[in-house]
Amino acid sequence: MARRWPDLTVLELLVGVDDHGSLSAASRHVGIAQPNASRAVKQVERQFGMALIHRSPTGSTLTAEGTVIAHWARRVLEDANLLLDVAEGLRAERSAELTVGASMTVAEHLMPAWLGRFRGLHADVSIHLQVHNSAAVFARVQDGTCDVGFVESPTVPRTLNSVKVAHDRLVVVVAPTHPWARRRRALTVAELAGTQLLVREPGSGTRTTLDLALQEYDRAAPLLELGSAAAIRTSVMSGVGPAVLSTLAVRDQVAAGELKVIDVDGLSLERVLRAVWRPPRQLDGPAGELVRLVRREGLERADR
User: Fold this and answer.
1) Fold of domain 8-93
2) pLDDT for 79-100, tens place per residue?
3) Domain parsing of the chain, residue ranges
4) What pLDDT score was predicted for residue 2?
5) For every residue of 75-136, which 3-state class applies, written as one string?
6) Which residues does the UniProt record annotate as the domain HTH lysR-type (predicted)?
């Protein structure tokens, strides 16, 4: 027959009677009502088959057997406290690890600086970065694989919390030898929609932003779908065709004259970069610290 373990609160009460001289004082110390304390002690007395407390009009004291039990109860409670200390230490170690998910554009152009500054402030935190498209980041945040994600998607699942952390803009880019590079007037939105473009795969923030912006127009089929902005950028520079990419991804090449930005009349592709995480709303620990750092940097850039 399996033994039943005594409740630790009852052991605290017995030790409290020994330390404070009465059951009422012990119950106050433990933080439970005296009637409940009395019932708990009687229950353990029935379990042990012996009287542990001598009750009298002037108060309660331990019996001889109760004194022996209280002695061993102290050792049990000490070990229980050690168990709680170990669990708390393990929790602290776990919280000192941070797994971040980031979409391609954010990971390539912003995350290195963000994580570098974060490491300078929190050298004790181990950081793991996972790079996916925005849809995959959402999925990994939702299933707990990532503590926090950073995406450029214009929409966020309703099951996740989010906050704006930065901005960027999508632009149409072509190689300098492309016919559009010699145009004197801006493209129309219809012309852009009707042109075969190099695009990211479905699920990426860049693709979603472009699809939403052109959803009311007749669209040409993609010229080519590629899994990263870097691959698209290289293809555009090689003359494969035009593309719509983040200014973060083409800034250096535009400045060097390797790519040319084409204006589109009446089309704005400004977008918001967001941090996303699972409930609750308040994001604590290293993940919360990272989001606050990133937001501060975004506000400082906006003020410049």
Assistant:
1) Arc Repressor Mutant, subunit A (1.10.10)
2) 888 888 777 666 655 557 899 9
3) 8-93, 95-161+275-303, 167-270
4) 63
5) HHHHHHHHHHHHHHHHHHHHHCEEEEEECHHHHHHCHHHHHHHHHHHCCCCEEEEEECCHHH
6) 6-63
